[in-house]
Write a structure and sequence with these properties.
Number of helices: 16
Strand order of the largest sheet: 6-7-5-2-8-9
CATH class of the largest domain: Alpha Beta
Low-confidence stretches: none
Shape: globular
Structural class: alpha/beta
CATH topology of the largest domain: Rossmann fold
Number of domains: 2
Helix content: 25-40%
CATH architecture of the largest domain: 3-Layer(aba) Sandwich
Bound molecules: adenosine monophosphate
Distance between the termini: 8 Å
CATH superfamily of the largest domain: Phosphoglycerate kinase, N-terminal domain
Largest sheet: 6 strands, parallel
Strand content: 15-25%
Number of strands: 19
């Protein structure tokens, strides 16, 4: 028995209440009077699907979580500022419900006209969302004729709105954003154009182990930067001073080095560093002479020779996937390695893909967004998908179809 995931464009939406699970978990700030959205990329990411529902004369019901309100109503996490931003982007009224379930939401959904947009209040104001409780699913069902998932970043979680609800709805499909994510990420996972370079950064080796192991059979070069690199350097016997690294991470790094050696995959590590006495000591930064970091200092970014090396080694690649910063890039004094790497990748001829919030933000801050072929909106979800783990939200969308044999 084969399985397939339908696309939103395959469904007849006219006159139907289309429940669209979106990822509107956007950053907010309080401007003294109101909460306002500071980065609307995730809202913009869902516009194609929303516009399609409107243009198809469907009734668009949008549902999302925002922050971690832990199952209780907390107006700090209200979707009200998201509704205002969405209305501005769509140039259209967006009605926000007081609650995502109950009589109020149900009656608003029944009174919608074709092409209307209704935004449900934060799903996580109810414990039932994260617990995937049948009662909560039943309440969401009252609002749903057709289910669409366009929230790739939450598809790895088995929540009511990502798994419980689609399993109960006869007509279900993937939105445009999810279709795009699945296409690029499955091509990358299953059939990357070779030579293929994997670039990993950030702080936690453990989070990226699965992906490294998954890719080692099909990758040609691995580049490691950020705090992760110190675990690899220490495993090779280098001095890393007071840089972030623990025993467990070092053992994991050792294991990866052993496997990559056996598979003849070259692992490129930093050959120099930006180091300082403390992350707060911006003025005291130095560039190390070589790969070792003096005992009293800690590494906070990759150095210029490393960037030169990475540039040279990346030049002939056909596919590049990048996840995780090269240093403490939130601090401008230590951001150069990450921003320069973004420009180096942008300047190659390769198919350029990136995933994770930090990489996405570095690419946008360095002005390279347009040069990347695809920047995944998911963080943990992207990594889990690439690791080949079961994706609960995707399984819940599947239909069984008769296969050839
Ligand atoms: P991760 O969540 O594992 O992708 O790690 C991202 C975080 O790693 C960012 O907040 C960076 O500031 C941090 N990071 C990157 N390089 C370093 C470093 N050399 N020392 C400490 N933290 C780092």
């Amino acid at each position: 028995m084969q399985k397939e995931v339908r696309k939103i464009q395959d469904l007849e939406l006219r006159g139907k209440r289309v429940f669209v699970r979106v990822d509107f978990n956007v950053p907010l700030k309080h401007d003294g009077k109101n909460w306002v959205v500071t980065d609307s990329k995730r809202i913009e990411g869902a516009l194609e699907t929303i516009r399609h529902v409107i243009a198809s004369d469907g009734k668009c019901i949008l549902a999302s979580h925002l922050g971690r309100p832990h199952g209780k109503k907390d107006l700090k996490y209200s979707l009200e500022p998201v509704g205002a931003k969405l209305s501005e982007l769509l140039q259209k009224d967006v009605v926000l419900t007081d609650d995502c379930i109950g009589d109020g939401a149900k009656s608003l959904s029944q009174r919608m006209r074709n092409g209307d947009v209704l935004l449900l209040e934060n799903l996580r104001f109810h414990e039932g969302e994260e617990e995937n409780s049948p009662d909560f699913v039943a309440k969401l069902m009252e609002l749903t004729d057709i289910y669409v998932n366009d929230a790739f970043g939450t598809m790895h979680r088995a929540h009511a709105s990502t798994v419980g609800l689609p399993k109960m709805v006869a007509q279900r499909a993937a939105g445009f954003l999810v279709q795009k994510e699945l296409k690029y990420l499955s091509d990358l996972r299953d059939n990357p154009g070779r030579p293929f370079a994997l670039i990993m950064g950030g702080a936690k080796v453990s989070d990226k182990m699965g992906i490294l192991e998954q890719f080692l059979p099909k990758v040609d070069k691995v580049f490691v930067g950020g705090a992760m690199a110190y675990a690899f350097l220490k495993a090779q016997g280098h001095e890393i001073g007071r840089s972030l690294c623990d025993e467990k991470q070092m053992q994991l790094a050792s294991k990866i080095l052993r496997i990559s050696d056996a598979r003849k995959v070259k692992v490129f590590l930093p050959v120099d560093h930006v180091a300082t006495s403390a992350i707060s000591d911006v003025k005291g930064k130095v560039i190390t002479d070589g790969v070792d970091i003096p005992k009293n200092l800690l590494g906070v970014d990759v150095g210029p020779k490393t960037l030169e090396l990475f540039q040279k080694e990346l030049s002939e690649m056909k596919t590049i996937f990048w996840n995780g910063p090269m240093g403490v890039f939130e601090e401008p004094a230590f951001s150069k390695g990450t921003f320069e790497l973004s420009k180096i990748i942008a300047g190659t001829q390769a198919l350029k893909l990136a995933g994770g919030g930090d990489s996405a933000s570095a690419i946008s801050q360095s002005g390279c967004e347009d040069q990347f072929d695809f920047i995944s909106t998911g963080g943990g979800a992207t990594l889990e998908f690439l690791e080949g783990r079961d994706f609960a939200g995707l399984k819940a969308l599947e239909y069984r179809v008769q296969g050839d044999g």
